[in-house]
Amino acid sequence: MSSDPDSPESADALLERLRTEPHRRHNPLINEWILVSAGRTHRPWQGRRETAPTDPLPTFDPSCYLCPGNVRANGERNPDYAETFVFTNDFSALRPDTPTDRMVDGLLRAEGEAGACRVLCFDRRHDLTLAGMPVTAVRRVVDVWADQTSELAAMYPWVQVFENRGQIMGASNPHPHGQIWAGTALPREAAKEDETQRRHHEATGRRLLLDYADQEADGPRVVEANHDWLVLVPFWAAWPYETLLVARHPASRLPDLNDGRRDSLAAILIRLLARYDNLFGLSFPYSMGWHQAPSGGADDYWQLHAHFLPPLLRASVRKFMVGYELLAETQRDLTAEQAAEDLRAASAVGVAVGRSLDGRAGAGEVAAS
User: Fold this and answer.
1) Which pTM does this prediction carry?
2) Distance between CA atoms of 78 and 103, rounded to whole angstroms?
3) 177 catalytic residue (yes or no)
4) Alpha helix segments (H runs only) across 135-248
5) Domain assignment of residue 61, yes or no
6) Half-sphere exposure of 267 toward its Cβ, with a 13 Å CA cutoff?
7) Of 126, 175, 177, 307, which residue is the catalytic one?
8) Cα torsion 233, 234, 236, 237: sign
9) What's the total number of domains in the chain?
10) How far apart are CA 247 and CA 230, in angstroms?
11) Does residue 14 form part of some domain?
12) Could you read off the pLDDT of 210-223 as tens digits, one per residue?
């Protein structure tokens, strides 16, 4: 299966043929392979189906520990915040006072990990999502992401900004919020991306993801694009409707973005998330996170990007990473090209009206630009 330009079969023709044939694709960002088994989405399904509660969320929940003025689990009372609110996680997975001693005993190794875990409430309203917020409000979230990155990067090598949306993605509270964790070690996925981007830059003098964005521009896997950002289903996507959001100009971290690029980021985030919600007519669950250059060293090889990893294969059917995926290698059931086509066909304006899988009601029509 060669895609060499001199091959009798062109890359486009080969890709068209692979829409219906099992094949493997390489992920250059982490140097791993994925099995694509196109056509498995047509198989009969008698497994678990996710169902949605029927009650919509209120704008304020007196029992919610993230709503303004309410008391959290540690006894502290939230301020009556008007927009965003950041606090140290009451049940932090990482703590700044943890000793970083190492233990070595033959093949057994361990080391202490110091760090910080913070919670970011996106808005005071309990019933919103990023997709249902105006551009100005999402821009405030972008600014907090950047501010928190700057503050924590001064103390820790790795800052992980992320959001788990929806109960099936582990969100413990439906109030719109995300998290920022920072640690003293470079985590597994960050280490893999750091190595591949550094190696590509050493070999070419260019940033790997900028080269990838240039190659994909106007291609079949692009979902959204503006002057500053590109959203696509990556060629090597693992989750059914996974997307990659890439800065189209050199930027290593969120604080590198000027006002114009932050504005365009807020706008394209809303459009992407509206497409997700409109794809199946529900508030789409996902895990998303920013990958930024590690602090304290060279960063001219690292390109700022975000991963969106939603689990749904169909409206009520979740993709599980089990069996072959856990024991051999990652496998997906539809091609990246088909997933991108599905997302492009979904509206980028407004938020789907209907229940989510964690009980949210659609927020109605909102501006997406």
Assistant:
1) 0.89
2) 40
3) yes
4) 135-153, 188-204, 208-216
5) yes
6) 14
7) 177
8) negative
9) 1
10) 7
11) no
12) 999 999 999 999 99
